[in-house]
Amino acid sequence: MQNMIFSVDKLQKFTQEVFLKMGCSPEHAQQATQVLLSADLRGIDSHGVARLIGYVRLWEAERVNAQPDIKIVHETPSTATIDGDRGLGLVIAPYAMKIAIEKAKVAGTGWVAIKNSNHYGIAGYHSMMALEHDMMGISMTNASALVAPTFSQERMLGTNPIAVACPTNEEPPFVADFSTTTAANGKLEILQRKEEEAPIGWVQTKEGHPTEDAGILKKGGALLPLGSDRVHSSHKGYCLGSIVDIFSAVLSGANYGPWVPPFPSYVPLPENPVGEGVGHFVGAMRVDAFRPAEDYKNHMDNWIRRFRNSTPVEGQKKVLIPGDPERESEKLRRKEGIPLLEPVVKDLQSLADKFNLEF
Amino acid sequence: MQNMIFSVDKLQKFTQEVFLKMGCSPEHAQQATQVLLSADLRGIDSHGVARLIGYVRLWEAERVNAQPDIKIVHETPSTATIDGDRGLGLVIAPYAMKIAIEKAKVAGTGWVAIKNSNHYGIAGYHSMMALEHDMMGISMTNASALVAPTFSQERMLGTNPIAVACPTNEEPPFVADFSTTTAANGKLEILQRKEEEAPIGWVQTKEGHPTEDAGILKKGGALLPLGSDRVHSSHKGYCLGSIVDIFSAVLSGANYGPWVPPFPSYVPLPENPVGEGVGHFVGAMRVDAFRPAEDYKNHMDNWIRRFRNSTPVEGQKKVLIPGDPERESEKLRRKEGIPLLEPVVKDLQSLADKFNLEF
Questions:
Q1: Does B159 touch chain A (CB under 8 A)?
Q2: In this structure, what are the phi and psi dihedrals at residue B337, rounded to the nearest 5 degrees?
Q3: Which one of A139, A212, A242, A290 makes the best mutation probe of the B interface by having the most chain B beta carbons within 10 Å?
């Protein structure tokens, strides 16, 4: 499949116009665009403009409210709970993160649980908002159930990512952003396109047996938690995914487990919801709430340098630091543009036609 | 190897006497004993009285201060940093958790970073202290380097466990407590005793190659992060272990990465330390800082019931909830006593001889 290259500016302008056509305020359109584009820049293609049409379809299905009245429904000095009013997670999560940062300025840390939201893009974006304030940022979200817990046939958890960003002094920041599964959906889609098989340990059949079928999710199969199988500690990945689900939804009042609303608008909503919408959880910790910021940041530099300089195994140039691959991608794509696959370009073209926009 | 069964009371009394002989205050001796015994009760044999002799040796080597002056060196409304004065982590971590709980009562959440500590026992004990206050408890610690990051030959991280405890209403609490590696050291020791091989994906050789040698750590090999290899997302386990290291040590001013002091007293301390002692990080979040406690706890009950009732794969009776196996163990062992392996009994006997105690 061919890639076409687009300039960041062009994609940014177009994406923003689409959000405006949905009825988003200029401020919200800009924020949502920034989150999507940051995914494309960072090389997380599954979470960038490739999803724009999905958000539009959710809006058309009246599952996304383009003009949400986002508000705090509960708070303490270091916490808040946000009702996202069915808005775009792309807008609600940064709003919540700003509250976490403001709380941290006063209380040392700030923690915000979010209900009644939708898909929030890449977890990393929100955690990284803390960096410029010399804070550590934390972000996580639940998602519709595709993952089978250890010993389960049923899909009970989403890919439930966690992101943690840590400020530094001279080194680039530490940014870990990862799903709590062995492989996320996007990797299976790539294999299906190439007509290749999945490694054992990524997915299981409807009955819970190991399989190499990269298309097994469409046949009732499930993704596996980080760890793959019991022998390799899949129960730890199951714990992690569960923790994300509980922080994001049981704490906020959103849906959890198999009740989390799906991203594709054609998939029916789960019956008898146990909460409102998708849930997220974000946090900010002032590093100088623990020790002088310069000490922390200098030691982060030292941490990064020591790990980067550890002896690599044969055939590898160096040991990577969380955030390195995404930073490399961003450097390249800011210069050379963002490559999009043909089906993504077609989707964007169809959005241009729908909204009478130029693409 | 034969097991001998001991009553909880007898082990408790003996362990407490050993800590008193080390010079611990009665209060500290009781606290340290409680943490060790909770590991034996919960079936985490590697972290119970089997380690008592190790703590005594650290004290003999003057690496543990039995009469520490534990104090807060920095704080904000929701945070504190503790200097453990080289005391037992078994005493320092519960002390820090109490501060986190007190902070949470006022600020909604409380977060405490700890430096200048030692091995703190099972992570789960500290997180569970929050439960009776209707709080979620979080606990993590770094440990001496046995784990090779993805692409690294060198051991750079400890098994760095994370524990999260969530209060419930009618169901028993959710308690996840797990190392961020595919397998922890204890499992390898069991295989070595049985002269069995380790599954591929648990360990690597000194050169970074896959191996089934359960004794490879003694030959310069390394444990692998949760995920095992790059194809199965070991980089996510590497991220997790790194996050625990940074929260525990870069935030607190303890040693991190390859500088973390070892548990065995005969292993030399790493040169040129970058901080003080071992580091931990604990936190407590009042659930009613986010929503009414009854709502949260009822939804936790519902979460647990739904997951417990998910359809198991063939050959499995049911899907487990984090904390189930440990709870089963505790029920059984409170009734039938705690089984100890012969070498552990010998170690305890040698402690009895050393301190003129009855065992």
A1: no
A2: 95, 175
A3: A290
B183 contact residues in A (CB cutoff 8 A): 233
What's residue B340's pLDDT?
95
Minimal C-alpha gap between A2 and chain B (Å): 25
Map out the domains of chain B as residue ranges.
Answer: 3-292+325-355
**Contact call for residues A128 and A134 (beta carbons, < 8 A):** no
B182 touches chain A (CB under 8 A): yes
Q: Does the beta-carbon distance from B156 to A299 stay under 8 Å? A: no
Q: CB contact, 8 Å: B258 with chain A? A: yes
How far apart (Å, rounded) are the C-alpha atoms in residues B180 and A162?
A: 14
Mean pLDDT, all residues of chain B: 97
The pTM assigned to this predicted structure is: 0.98
Q: Looking at the predicted structure, is the pLDDT value of residue B226 above 90?
A: yes
A208 contact B CB<8A: yes
Q: Phi and psi at residue A120, in whole multiples of 5°?
A: -105, 15
Q: Is the minimum CB–CB distance between A234 and chain B shorter than 8 Å?
A: no
d(CA B259, CA B272) in angstroms, rounded, equals 8
pLDDT at A349 over 70: yes
Place A189 in a pLDDT band, splitting at 50, 70 and 90.
Answer: confident
Q: What is the pLDDT of residue A193?
A: 84
> Average model confidence (pLDDT) for chain A?
97
Which alpha helices (H) appear in chain A, and where do they start and end? 8-21, 26-41, 52-60, 89-107, 123-128, 185-194, 234-245, 293-308, 324-336, 342-355
Residues of B in contact with A298 (CB under 8 A): none
- Whether B226 and A243 lie within 8 Å, measured CB to CB: no
Contact B267/A at CB under 8 A: no
**Cβ of B293 under 8 Å from any chain A Cβ?**
no
Q: Touching check for B166 and chain A: CB below 8 Å?
A: yes
Lowest mean pLDDT among A160-174, A179-193, A339-353: A179-193
* B307 interaction partners in chain A (CB closer than 8 Å): 149, 156, 242, 257
Could you tell me what percent of chain A has a pLDDT over 70? 99
Closest CA to B301 of B309, B313, B311: B309
* pLDDT tens, position by position, B72-108: 999 999 999 999 999 999 999 999 999 999 999 999 9
Q: Side chain identity at B90, as an amino acid letter?
A: L
Instruction: Look at residue A3 in the predicted model and tell me its pLDDT.
Output: 85
| The residue count for chain B | 359
Smallest CA–CA distance from B236 into chain A, residue: A178
Q: Regarding the domain delimited by A3-292+325-355, which CATH topology (the fold level of the hierarchy) does it fall under?
A: Ribosomal Protein S8; Chain: A, domain 1 (3.30.1370)
Find the mean pLDDT for residues A293-317.
Answer: 97
Length, in residues, of chain A:
359
**Residue B259 confidence (pLDDT) above 70:** yes
Nearest CB partner across the interface for A239, out of B176, B295, B312: B176
Cβ neighbours of residue B232 under 8 Å, at least 6 residues apart? A182, A199, A201, A202, A227, A228, A232, B201
- Please indicate whether, in this complex, the C-beta atoms of B226 and A231 are within 8 angstroms of each other: no
From A234, A151, A158, select the one nearest B308 (Cα to Cα).
A151
Across the range B292-301, mean pLDDT stands at 98
Distance CA A290, CA A296 (A): 9
